[in-house]
Write a structure and sequence with these properties.
By secondary structure, this protein is an alpha/beta fold. It is built from 19 helices and 19 strands. The chain is 38% helix and 19% strand. Helix 1 crosses helix 19, helix 4 packs across helix 5 and helix 11 packs across helix 14. The site of adenosine-5'-diphosphate has 19 residues, from helix 1, strand 14, strand 15 and helix 14.
Length: 485
């Protein structure tokens, strides 16, 4: 099969969260199964072309796309996904993609990804490809299935056999804009009227467009695939998703063990394995030094690496924090996000400097060092489509404490005294979270039992090979749906 994979962030080029990790490795894993994969993403100004060996494609320069009553232009540059023979095409439109951040609140945020979606299709046409599947990821690529149904349906030579898969990495981000944008997107305006395929509670949603028009839909864990069909987790899209229930699948993400393995990770100070854990304790010492905390082997360190947003459970953590810092434990926190949480942790770290080490911002190296140098990782999410940090925690022998939701529920098994890989709580409340933390603290004091939990986690295998095969099945299923539907 020839698969086109489109995403708005991809490791190692640009990243804000888990989507980038997935998009950096899934195309490689699918290609390793013998398929042709071509990848697309925007060329943001933080991507240094020279360093990554990215160069312009001569015959794909200054291509016009109409944006309502304006003409905009894009060019294409090409590079390789590291470690694989997979081409990645960068959509170069400085006017749209040279900003301070990958995502913005600028008034033309919608236009940026209209341009990206159209540029993917325009490039496919100019390359003379006839893709079997276009794999779209999140709202930034949600318009692609709608374009194939409307604006590009005439091109049967190119897209006559092209099926689409829409992957939801987080249903909380829906690409909602004013309905006026439908005109700029050049999609049928009547579909913006109530009940139309592009209309969503009076606005225009690019994610909804993808969910309506894609041949098949999936999300990144089995549990989340069921959850998003309910009012509690569906963010208003539960009706549409349950109407399409037979087309909605869940595939748990894998992780890239060439990047995330404590035996080889170049970003950590000391390497270690389940048999040889000494390096882990040395990493802990080094991390605490870096964060200005004192090392004590009997005091457990809880790590947090996260976007600082309510989804990740920070409202209950804020409620519990004062109580938690009274316990025998330390925190190392790395994150960036909402001002109120950044401010809370800044004040907390100033007030309890011996208990809390804090780094506000995005720091890939420190994220690896926290995975390696802490004893526990706290992920109390309100909802969690899959979650990757708990999977990194498992591999690094850093025991996850998680809420039983979405992918956290699918990947972490509560420790029952013998089996299990972490500590899991159900109710989304500060007391329920604290009970799980206190259970972990109790087991931590028994070194043998704690090492059993660590090794249980380190023995788990979330490699992409298994998940890639499931995606290939979904691609085939998308093609069957296209033919019959
Ligand atoms: P989400 O995609 O919802 O943010 P995931 O757990 O799926 O959550 O993925 C988060 C990814 O982003 C992980 O690779 C994590 O290490 C990384 N990450 C999150 N915040 C930071 C940060 N401040 N600095 C470095 N890496 C971060």
């Amino acid at each position: 099969m020839h698969i086109i994979f489109a995403a708005s962030e991809i490791v190692p080029f640009a990243k804000t969260g888990g989507l980038a990790d997935v998009a950096g490795v899934l195309p490689k894993a699918v290609a390793a199964e013998g398929h042709q994969v071509d990848v697309f993403m925007p060329l943001y100004n933080m991507i240094h072309c020279y360093d990554h060996g990215i160069y312009p494609v001569e015959w794909l320069q200054d291509i016009p796309v109409s944006m309502g009553d304006r003409q905009v232009y894009f060019s294409v540059q090409v590079g390789k996904i590291p470690g694989a023979n997979v081409n990645i095409y960068f959509i170069d439109a400085p006017y749209y993609f040279h900003r301070n951040a990958i995502y913005t609140n600028d008034p033309d945020e919608g236009e940026r990804f209209i341009l990206f979606s159209r540029a993917v299709l325009e490039t496919i046409q100019r390359q003379g490809w006839q893709p079997d599947v276009i794999h779209c990821n999140d709202w930034q690529t949600g318009l692609i299935p709608a374009y194939l149904a409307h604006n590009y349906a005439w091109d049967r030579n190119c897209f006559g056999n092209t099926a689409t898969l829409m992957t939801i990495h987080n249903i909380g981000y829906q690409g909602r804009f004013d309905k006026g944008l439908i005109y700029h997107a050049e999609l049928p305006q009547h579909e913006g009227h109530p009940g139309g395929t592009l209309e969503f509670y009076g606005s225009f949603s690019m994610l909804k467009a993808g969910l309506v028009y894609a041949d098949i839909i999936n999300t990144v864990s089995e549990r989340y695939a069921v959850e998003i069909q309910t009012a509690e987790y569906g963010h208003g899209l539960e009706g549409l998703l349950s109407a399409r229930a037979q087309d909605v699948y869940g595939v748990v993400n894998g992780i890239d063990y060439t990047i995330w393995d404590p035996a080889t990770d170049p970003l950590i100070h000391y390497h270690y394995t389940p048999q040889q854990l000494a390096g882990k304790y040395r990493n802990k010492k080094a991390l605490l030094k870096r964060m200005g905390l004192t090392y004590d082997e009997n005091i457990p360190v809880i790590g947090i690496v996260s976007r600082l947003v309510t989804q990740k459970g920070f409202d209950i953590l804020v409620e519990a924090m004062f109580n938690l810092v009274q316990q025998d434990l330390q925190f190392v926190i790395l994150g960036s996000g909402e001002y109120r949480y950044e401010e809370f942790f800044r004040v907390a770290a100033q007030t309890f400097p011996h208990k809390i080490g804090l780094w506000l911002g995005f720091n890939e190296e420190l994220a690896h060092q926290i995975a390696a140098g802490t004893d526990m990782l706290l992920i109390p999410s309100r909802y969690e489509p899959c979650g990757l940090t708990q999977l990194y925690g498992l591999k690094y022998g850093t025991v996850p404490i998680v809420r039983r939701t979405g992918g956290l529920a699918d990947t972490i098994k509560d420790f029952d005294g013998k089996t299990g890989t972490g500590f899991v709580f159900d109710a989304y409340t500060a007391p329920a979270m604290m009970r799980a933390i206190f259970r972990a603290l109790k087991y931590y004091q028994d070194k043998d039992t704690w090492q059993t939990i660590m090794r249980n986690g380190m023995a788990q295998d979330f490699s992409w090979e298994v998940a890639a095969k499931k995606y290939i099945y979904l691609y085939e299923q998308a093609q069957r749906n296209r033919k019959t539907g």
